[in-house]
Write a structure and sequence with these properties.
The protein is of the alpha+beta class. The protein has 4 helices and 7 strands.
């Protein structure tokens, strides 16, 4: 397994070097770092209506980890999940490929920093957006109660038989 160096640029931004590739095995240090960054971001979750706080951290192929939190709107359909917020944060910075996502949260979870009550799993919409930026065979989805207590799946396990970018590739038979 590769040795990675984790450089904490600030409290919500970490750079992993060398940059991991799709399919590389994650180290416990990287997992713990992603869960820690998501847990720190959780205090910024804005969920006055559901009181269900969620934060996510995504690791990309550039070796950067980006965070996002759920943001609710009084017009509830405008609400966005933490996972998509983190993915769009990464995409807006030019990232196009995700290695893994770590998610923490729960009812009134923003009052805590660790030892959450549940493994907060991504909704169907977020699983679909992950599919646009992650390889279903190798992208990891980590749902954590703490840095050492988590469950982990591949994206393909959470979204089997999925629709993705290849579905729109031109497959017109040549005549
Ligand atoms: Zn979602």
């Amino acid at each position: 397994m590769l040795e990675y160096k984790l450089e904490e640029v600030n409290e919500s931004y970490v750079r992993v070097s060398p940059a991991p590739a799709s399919g590389d095995e994650l180290t416990e240090e990287i997992r713990a770092c992603m869960i820690r960054l998501a847990s720190r971001a959780l205090r910024n979750s804005f969920a006055p209506y559901s009181r269900y706080n969620v934060a996510a951290a995504v690791l990309t192929t550039s070796g950067r980890i980006y965070t996002g939190v759920n943001i609710e709107s009084s017009l509830l359909s405008c609400t966005i999940c933490a996972e998509r917020n983190a993915i769009f944060h990464a995409a807006a910075c030019g990232e196009r490929k995700l290695i893994a996502v770590a998610i923490v949260g729960g009812l009134e979870a923003a009052e805590k920093e660790t030892d959450f009550d549940e493994y907060c799993t991504p909704c169907g919409v977020c699983r679909q957006v992950m599919r646009d930026f992650g390889d279903p065979e190798t992208m990891r989805v980590i749902c954590a109660k703490s840095e050492t207590d988590y469950r982990e799946w591949t994206l393909g396990q959470l979204l089997p038989e999925s629709f993705g970018p290849e579905s729109l590739e031109d497959r017109t038979p040549e005549t």
